[in-house]
Design goal:
The chain contains 3 helices and no strands. The chain is an all-alpha fold.
């Protein structure tokens, strides 16, 4: 159905009038209302960016805590694998190699396991600075007794390699 001006209803009406901002003279200053709106817009944008930056910083701190825990787990996992390899090397190699060589091989692997356990504790205590993380790191009260117990097991395995 055509409009009163004779145009079809599906097409927009084009006006030849100039927009208000284009009709201003170049030497006119913007009004105070426009300045207030711009200032509020800038403040809102700054607050939004600041909140996003704080959130990203907090998430990065969380990732740092999780990375430190994965590193600790990797050290302990390596220590347990070396401990098992040292005991297994002594048991399996004594029939194939001279006894002293099997004992030295087992000793080196077990000493490496002890080193890994000490490195795990050192990295966990010295490696993670205080941060704004929302997650809590592993409780240090739990880490020391656990690693001390594993170190005692390692020393017992070392004694078992040499005394049979």
């Amino acid at each position: 159905m055509p409009r009163p001006g004779g145009e079809p209803s599906g097409f927009p009406v084009v006006s030849n009038a100039m927009p208000q901002s284009a009709s201003k003279q170049p030497d006119e200053q913007p009004g105070t209302d426009e300045l207030v709106r711009t200032a509020k817009s800038v403040e809102h944008t700054a607050a939004t960016l600041d909140a996003e930056a704080d959130r990203r910083t907090s998430l990065a701190a969380d990732r740092t805590v999780f990375a430190a825990e994965r590193t600790y787990a990797a050290w302990v996992r390596t220590a347990l694998a070396a401990l098992a390899s040292g005991v297994g090397a002594r048991a399996l190699l004594e029939d194939v190699l001279p006894l002293w060589l099997a004992q030295i091989t087992g000793t080196v692997l077990i000493l490496f396991a002890a080193f890994c356990l000490c490195a795990a504790v050192w990295r966990e205590f010295a490696g993670v600075p205080k941060s704004r993380a929302r997650v809590s790191p592993l409780p240090r009260v739990l880490l020391l007794p656990l690693n001390f117990f594993l170190l005692l097991v390692t020393l017992a395995a070392l004694l078992g390699v040499w005394v049979k």
